[in-house]
Structures are given as C-alpha cells and as structure tokens.
Write a structure and sequence with these properties.
With 111 residues, this protein is an all-beta fold. 0% of the residues lie in helices and 46% in strands.
Length: 111
C-alpha cells in the first residue's frame, strides 16, 4: 500500500526543497548587484532572476515553473510601503511528482 498526501504549507512554513532539479531565485538591482528583498526602500527598482538547473545526466521534459511573475526574469519595483509576504517559487515535472524543487517564502518590508 502507498499513501501520497499533498497540501500547501502555512505561509512562512515552506522549506526550500530540491529533487532531480535545482531552483534558485536571485534579486538584483538594475546594475546586477544583489538586493536584500527582506528590507526594500520604497521606489526601489530591481529584477527577479529564476534559474532552474538539471544537475543529473538524465534529461527532463515538460517542467512547469510556477511563480507569481509572468516571465523567468522580470523587472519589479517596491511601490507600496508595508509588510508583505513573498511566496515560494515552484518547478516540477508535469508527469513525475518526485522531480521538483521550490524556494522558501519570506517576509518583505518596504519602507
């Protein structure tokens, strides 16, 4: 017998995970320097860069990248001051649930 359970972790309880593929999200300013998204000054322009890698010799097809952005690299701006939650980014093989990776979510403060 085998039981497979799925669900969505509570906000802030997500843990980074990788199996079969690796996933990294970096946030950089317009000059390519790292940006700390946990503390952003209002009006800060920056980019999110998502990198998915296959560290194995096996080739994977039909991977799905799930994120709140419409593209793998997207320009962003911290417009509204306040505390926000940046949800995790997910990548998974469409037909093999074991091949997946995700980042952890985090709190963001715009001041």
């Amino acid at each position: 017998a085998r039981i497979i359970t799925e669900g969505i972790p509570e906000q802030g309880e997500e843990k980074a995970y990788a199996n079969g593929v690796s996933l990294a999200v970096s946030y950089v300013d317009l000059n390519g320097r790292p940006v700390n998204v946990a503390q952003l000054e209002q009006g800060t322009n920056f980019s999110a860069v998502v990198t998915v890698k296959n560290p194995s010799a096996r080739g994977y097809n039909n991977l799905v990248l799930s994120e709140i952005f419409p593209a793998v690299k997207i320009n962003l701006c911290a417009v509204y001051p306040g505390r926000f939650y940046l949800p995790p980014v997910y990548c998974e093989a469409m037909y093999d649930y074991l091949i997946r990776a995700n980042t952890a979510g985090q709190e963001v403060t715009v001041f």
